Every structure is written in C-alpha cells, then in structure tokens.
Amino acid sequence: MRPSGRRPDELRPVTLERGVARYAEGSCLVSFGNTKVLCTASLEERGPPWLRGSGRGWVTAEYAMLPRATHERTRREVTSGRPSGRTQEIQRLIGRSLRAVVNLAALGERQVTIDCDVLQADGGTRTASITGAWIALHECFAWMRERSIISVDPMKDHVAAISCGIHAGTPVLDLDYVEDSAAETDANFVITGSGGIVEVQGTAEGKPFTDDELLALLRLAKAGVSELVAKQKAVLAG
Question: How far apart, in whole angstroms, are the C-alpha atoms of residue 28 and residue 39?
Fold first, then answer.
C-alpha cells in the first residue's frame, strides 16, 4: 500500500482551472494533489535578438517557488541575485517541453513567456508546471487568434508530464513528497498527446534500476499522461 493509499497506477486528484489571472494573455491554476502551481502566459511583440529576421517566434519559461510553498520558508532567489541550478534546469525543461509542440514559424517574430509560480509544493512541481503551462499557452494562442494577431494556431499537439518512481520495490505513478523522498528510483516523463516522448529524466537513488523497471515506469507514465491530456481537453471543452 502506498502512503497515500493510492493504487500504483493512480494519479493524485488533478484540477486545471483556466483564466485565473486577469491581466495575462493566458493562465491556468494546476493542482496535483497538494502541489499547486499558477501558470501565466505573457505575449511580447518581439522575439529574442538572436532570432531577429528569421520569421520564427520563441516560447520560453521561468519557474519559481513562493517562500512558504514548503514546510519552512525558502529564501527568494532574487535576493541572492541569480536563480539556483535547480530552478534553471526546471525552467529550461518547461520551455523545451512546450516548444516541442509549437510551430514557431506560425507564431511570427514574437515571444511568449510562461511563468510557473509554485504556490504549494508536495512533489511533482515540474510536471504540474508543464501540464498547466500547456493550458496557459493554448489560452494565449486563442487570445492572439481572436485579435487577428495570428491566423493559424501554432499549437501542434498536447503535452503533459508526470513523475514515476520505484517505491518500496513497486513502480508507482505521480509521487508525492513522502514517496519521492524515499523512492529507490525517481523519474519524470514529458509526453505529447499523440504519445511521443519529449524528455525522460530518471535517477536511481539507491540500487540501479533495470530495463524492465524502466519500461514499467514508461508504461505508467504513458497511461498517466493520457489521463492528463484528457483533463486538458475537458477543461478546454468546458
């Protein structure tokens, strides 16, 4: 039995609420259990300088945790003058994940920045961020089409992400903090709606994991992302 009482293949309760930020071109409040992330999309009418004249746009991301997103207050990284290595790694992951499903040429020479701010952390903040960021980006593109800024939807597919791991010898889906901190293997999977793998991050915390265990985690992740994409579609349909 998992500490949470969930089945090995069971997600935490997931909610996606769009349109929660009044001033952003797109937004989504995403919850994976007790992990809550506010994702906002902001449009800039110019792309990065190194893409000038290319006719292509860019999608990038920033990630941060509020000081009391965790059990004890975490110092704001802005006070140290630079983001931590972990923060940089996560925001690059979010950006790569979104760009994998965006036609950057259809965006024109513009940039959309996704801000993912963790309000409460209980494991899986990067995977929740990616899943909610897709909704925020989709909303931004819809906002742009409504105003004839773009004529074609740049979004090519859904993308979502989920954590998996081996806890007490069993492959499990969507680890919360209690499981994550004690897992023998910890992995994150970013997968598109059509089943393509964007990125896999996997680490053995104790003994190395086997080929069969990796495949078991991949099967769990694909099933979990399928559920997340269905939730994305349901939110947009509503």
Answer: 5
Q: Residues 86-144: pLDDT tens digits?
A: 999 999 999 999 999 999 999 999 999 999 999 999 999 999 999 999 999 999 999 99
Nearest to 127 by CA among 173, 84, 105, 94: 94
Global pTM exceeds 0.90: yes
> Distance of alpha carbon 133 from its chain centroid, rounded?
6
Q: How far out from the chain centre does Cα 193 lie? A: 14
**Angle, helix 125-146 to helix 211-237, in steps of 10 degrees:** 40
Contacts of 106 (CB under 8 A, 6+ apart): 150, 152, 153, 154
Annotated binding site for phosphate: 86, 124-126
CA distance 128 to 34: 11
* Known binding-site residue numbers: 86, 124-126
Taking the C-alpha atoms of residue 103 and residue 145, their distance in angstroms, rounded to an integer, is 14
Domain boundaries, the chain: 14-237
pLDDT > 90: percent of the chain: 93
Instruction: Quick: pLDDT tens for 201-237.
Output: 999 988 899 999 999 999 999 999 999 999 999 999 9
User: Tell me: domain 14-237, CATH 3.40.190.10, correct?
Assistant: no
Phi–psi pair at 169, nearest 5 degrees: 80, 0
Q: How many CA atoms lie within 13 A of 219 on its CB side?
A: 10
Percent helix, strand, coil in the chain (nearest 5)? Answer: 35, 30, 35
What does 130-168 look like in DSSP terms, one character per residue?
HHHHHHHHHHHHHHHHHTTS-SS--B-S-EEEEEEEEET
